[in-house]
Design brief:
Elements (H helix, E strand, L loop, with lengths): L1 E2 L4 E2 L2 E7 L2 E8 L2 E9 L3 E6 L6 E8 L3 E7 L9 E5 L16
Length: 102
């Protein structure tokens, strides 16, 4: 959830980690924006490519699955909105294994 003084919006991340490096997609307002960044086990920083200005999301992981941070779009100066994120595991379509006929 991204919070501004006027409202809040929901979006999602698809993230992949290789060591300290993070790559992925930010699904924001119907757009899929590529991101790169790093994560040291507690703090993270993602840079999202969104013309004309890149967007930086930075913060920390709280517990094992929640993220808290701020968004810097390079435009709003000190008016940097806060965001929170929670891990939501993708549920497989077929969650019940097939039984063998014996």
């Amino acid at each position: 959830m991204l919070q501004t003084p006027a409202n809040y919006t929901y979006s999602s991340f698809t993230l992949h980690q290789n060591g300290d490096e993070i790559t992925g997609i930010w699904n924001q307002n119907g757009k899929k924006l590529p991101l790169t960044g790093n994560y040291d086990g507690r703090q993270f920083k993602f840079v999202v490519a969104d013309a004309p200005h890149d967007v930086t999301l930075a913060g920390y992981v709280e517990g094992a699955t929640d993220m808290v941070g701020i968004v810097d779009d390079g435009v709003n100066g000190d008016d940097e909105p806060a965001f929170t994120a929670s891990h939501r595991e993708t549920i497989p379509v077929n969650i019940f294994p097939k039984r063998s006929k014996t």
